[in-house]
Every structure is written in structure tokens, then in C-alpha cells.
Write a structure and sequence with these properties.
9 helices, Rossmann fold, globular, 234 residues
């Protein structure tokens, strides 16, 4: 299944079905027909978020079914990101299978250094010419301003301390930071292990406060694309 299909499904689930039904046992029962007991595990996972151990966190993500083929990004988001790369070094934090890095390289042949980071790089496609690092987003093993462009897609919604994560992304970005998160509402029973929910673009702008003067925050088919630029010293 691709992102465009899940976004159409999300429209029905999030915008058409009223909250009183979304949080009901009836919805839980219907969702269980598709995902079994995992739908209840996800609800418990969010409820216990402040008390989860690192092992519990990692175990759930390893067991969580892969919904999308290759990447969680829609084609429109991929094209937007690839066209927004600045400089000749790029780091994709939360690189997953490495598909986005491959698209970035194809659209930006002038990029000399491509780096992928994930808390577990088992899924990485090991694309030739890409260096991979296993690390948590809250503690990235790079120097300040090490990369011209830092990209982070479909990660912030999973991070309990998302402000620390955003701070780390900003720290290693020299020129540009690009973040993509789903535009979605929170309900008791959802099909993903998200902690943070941003129903509007201005919801995400609050999350990245303070927002620099040079920025862009737009809705791309139920996903929020955010870009900020740093003022370079002369």
C-alpha cells in the first residue's frame, strides 16, 4: 500500500467518522478484524508512553506491521523534499529503507555526502554510496552544523520528547532543515504507534517554536511539510 492510499483511508477514519465512534468499543472491535489484538496494544502503548522502557519502545516498533511499500512519504512529498535540498551534504534521520535517500541522490547528483540514520538500520537498503548510522534522534553522533541539509520524515510523531529531537535536528543542520509529519487527530484507537498529533499546520508550528523568519509550512495531501533555513554567517 502506498501513502496516497492510506491518506484517502485516513480521510474517512479521521474526518468522516465522529470521535464518539472512533473512541468506542465498536470501532475497536471493527479495527481488530483487520489488525487483531495489535490495535489494543497500540492504545496501551500510547497510554503508557511516559513510563515505557527503551526495550519496550524498540520491541513494539520491531513488531509493528509495515504498512507502506518502501517509504512512508507520498510521491508529492518526495518530489518536494528532493527539490528542496541545499548544499552538498544530506542527512536523513529516520531513513528507514533508504528509499528517500535514493530519490534525493537521483534528483541532486551534485550532493557529495549522503547519510542515513535510524535507531535500527536493519531495514536500510544499504544503497551504495550512503553511510548509515544506528542512533536515536535525541542523541545524534554528529558535530554541530555537519550537514548542509537535514531531512526527517515521519519520525517526530513517534518521539515522546519531540522538542529535544527537533533541537538535535537543528543542531546538526548548517543550512536547511526539512521535517514531514502526518496531519492527523488523536483518538484512542489508531493504526499507528504515534505519540504526537498535529491536526493543522499551525499545530506543528507551535511544536517547532521558535520559528525562524525563513520557513515554509504547508499541507501536502494530509502530510505537513516544514522547511526552515538558517542565516549563514558572512
Amino acid at each position: 500500500m502506498n501513502r496516497e492510499t492510506t491518506n484517502r483511508i485516513r480521510f474517512i477514519i479521521e474526518d468522516v467518522i465522529p470521535p464518539i465512534l472512533r473512541d468506542s468499543r465498536l470501532f475497536k472491535g471493527m479495527a481488530s478484524l483487520a489488525w487483531g489484538k495489535h490495535i489494543a496494544h497500540l492504545a496501551e502503548f500510547r497510554a503508557r508512553a511516559p513510563f515505557l522502557s527503551a526495550r519496550e519502545y524498540e520491541d513494539l516498533y520491531r513488531r509493528h506491521p509495515r504498512v507502506h511499500e518502501g517509504t512512508d512519504n507520498s510521491e508529492a512529498c518526495v518530489r518536494k523534499i528532493a527539490a528542496s535540498i541545499a548544499g552538498d551534504s544530506v542527512c536523513d534521520v529516520g531513513c528507514g529503507t533508504g528509499v528517500l535517500l535514493k530519490r534525493i541522490r537521483a534528483a541532486n547528483p551534485e550532493v557529495k555526502r549522503l547519510t542515513g540514520v535510524d535507531f535500527a538500520i536493519d531495514d536500510a537498503a544499504r544503497i551504495e554510496g550512503v553511510e548509515y548510522h544506528a542512533a536515536m534522534i535525541q542523541d545524534l553522533p554528529f558535530a554541530d552544523g555537519e550537514f548542509d541539509t537535514v531531512v526527517c520524515t515521519h519520525v517526530i510523531e513517534h518521539i515522546l520528547d519531540y522538542r529535544k529531537a527537533i533541537s538535535e535536528l537543528r543542531r546538526i543542520a548548517r543550512r536547511r532543515l526539512i521535517i514531514v509529519v502526518p496531519r492527523e487527530r488523536e483518538y484512542r484507537y489508531t493504526f499507528n504507534p504515534h505519540f504526537n498529533f498535529f491536526p493543522y499546520t499551525h499545530s506543528f508550528l507551535r511544536a517547532v517554536h521558535p520559528v525562524p523568519a525563513e520557513h515554509e509550512c504547508i499541507d501536502i495531501g494530509r502530510d505537513i511539510y516544514y522547511r526552515e533555513d538558517k542565516a549563514l554567517a558572512v
